[in-house]
Amino acid sequence: MTKKTLQKVIANMRNDRILVTMKKYLALTCSLALGLSSPALAEDMDKMWNTGEETIKLRAKDAKRGQLFDEGNYAMFIHWGLYSLLGNKVDGKTYYGIGEWIMNPRVANIPPEEYKKLAGQFDPTNFDAKEIVQLAKDAGMKYIVITAKHHDGFAMYDSKCNDFNITKATPWKTDPMKDLVKECEAAGIGFGFYYSHNQDWTYPGGMGGPTTDAEGNPKTFDDYFKEKCLPQVEEITTEYGKIELVWFDTPGKMEKKYVEQLVEVVRKNQPDALVSGRAGHNLGDYQSLGDMEVPHKNVEGMWEAVDTTNDSWAYAWYDEYWKTPKEILKRTIACVGRGGTYMFNIGPESDGSVPERAKTILRESGNWIKKHPNVIYNAGASPYGHALPWGDVTVQGNTLQLCVLEWPTTGKLYLPGLENTVQSIKVMTDAGLTELSFEKQGTAIVIDVPYKAPDDLISVIRVEVDGEPKADKTYALDPSLKTTVLADFAKGEGKVKYKEKRWMEKFGEWKVAHIFTQWGDDGKAVFDVEVLVPGEYNASLSYTGEGRLVWGVEVEGGEKIQNQQNSSHNFQEFPIGWLNFPKAGKYKVKVSCLEEGKDKAALNALHLAPMILQK
Ligand code: GLC
Questions:
Q1: Fewer CB atoms inside 10 A, N or C side of the chain?
Q2: According to the CATH classification, is domain 483-610 in 2.60.120.200?
Q3: What is the distance between the alpha carbons of residues 527 and 537, in angstroms, rounded to a whole number?
Q4: Per CATH, which fold does 57-376 belong to?
Q5: Predicted confidence band of residue 65 (pLDDT cuts 50, 70, 90)
Q6: Atom of ligand 1 nearest to the CA of 45
Q7: What is the dotted CATH code of the domain comprising 382-472?
Q8: Which residue blocks in 478-613 are alpha helix, DSSP H?
Q9: Ligand 1 close to Cβ of residue 45 (< 6 A)
Q10: Each residue's pLDDT tens digit, 137-148
């Protein structure tokens, strides 16, 4: 698209946007003045995912569908559409946040008729299906899920039932999905569609869309559903061969009867395809977690975390904050270690090209997965139920795969609380598998490891045991690294409230944390820990709050300390002081918030770092 043309289209948007904003303001003022309810405002986005419907879902072997999901454990998400043309910049102004929401009133508030004109400029001549599928393969991803229609209503495939699509409305006149499915089939990569079934901001009657058609006739959700949504789901499940997954999104308050009809269409046309957990009314085949959420605790049943290479799903011109290959692997291993699947997103530019850095980080992390396929594919959850101070664990049969991100400098790696008998311990080096010596010290296995980490990203130690791996889930304090115990693993005592806190950094960039807050005088957060090596440990706390706070940290039956520290709007770690653990074994560490600011103080984690330990 020429810059001049786009600017002309955008300039029109600006004028119309001002007009539309005035109309909306006028409508709002009038309706409020008349005592009518204000026009429907977008629900809280995270409430639209319906993640509250947490139900343990079957694993694929029981459900007879989703083997690639359940065994592959790692997939490519692709967000690509008209919004990629704007890349978060409209009329010279940059909007920070997830790019696919750019037209929404909460972002650039582009009038639907103006937004639709973008299709005339969409000409992705650099789109290369073969290259994208090869990138997924190089990354070690087992299937691809791509936006067929996002909330903006533009179909990225050749839809027969609605002309607002990539073949009818653009100069490119090509259906990229035809090539993608062909390349996926040739490469042995699964293929699935993302479809926003509830929100449609440009089709009359769609949730968040116009409430009348071009002639001013009122349109309902039922009209949208029958005229566009249902026929399009029929199209994407019949015209593109075998589909692995239909990823419905943001069901919000969509009525169950509609979701049931869509699921029925998927079952009829694609009996082996999974329906995402965000279908609504708990009608999905598995649980979809909230955006960008990698869980800290093992999650039962089939589930998926979705995340993105930077901070936006769709291409955003400014967003150069890429996850490193090590971070990608850490999050992928964490999802497998908690028992689930990780779907990781790229946002191609409007010309169809994939940002170079996205390709680099996917290929580098993919090279590691090629060296350690068993860590990811068909791997089971960690018997510890959570990550460990030096890394994480996934399981293959009776072998624990220790994924070490913080290689010890002491030549000793502590594996706590294993309830099996160890048969062998080996490390993968360039020279192949090397046997490691080890000894039992109390409840820990102490492994003699080389001083240099065998792998510059993540080193893998394989511990073969005498049966299904079992472990004590208590957090053991590592004698050479700081151990962080999140509030997720503590229990409340007395008056204190445990809750989930979910928030956006930039628009649509979601974070989630669990906290103890609203402290009463007797309120305590109780952390169970196992001391492997007795001695002095420094206690620090991560929390948010207002003003200076006084925290108490006590070892049940032992030392109690308190200290005053400042607080911050973001979770920040502050030192409290040293605590003595006189002998190895289990302890309860109790945290309380004293004096002022107790109501807003929100504790997210206790950290215990070795200071002076008994020899
Ligand atoms: C949220 C956003 C949507 C994005 C999806 C990815 O639902 O609304 O834009 O496609 O998350 O998981």
A1: C
A2: no
A3: 15
A4: TIM Barrel (3.20.20)
A5: confident
A6: 8
A7: 2.60.40.1180
A8: none
A9: yes
A10: 999 999 999 999
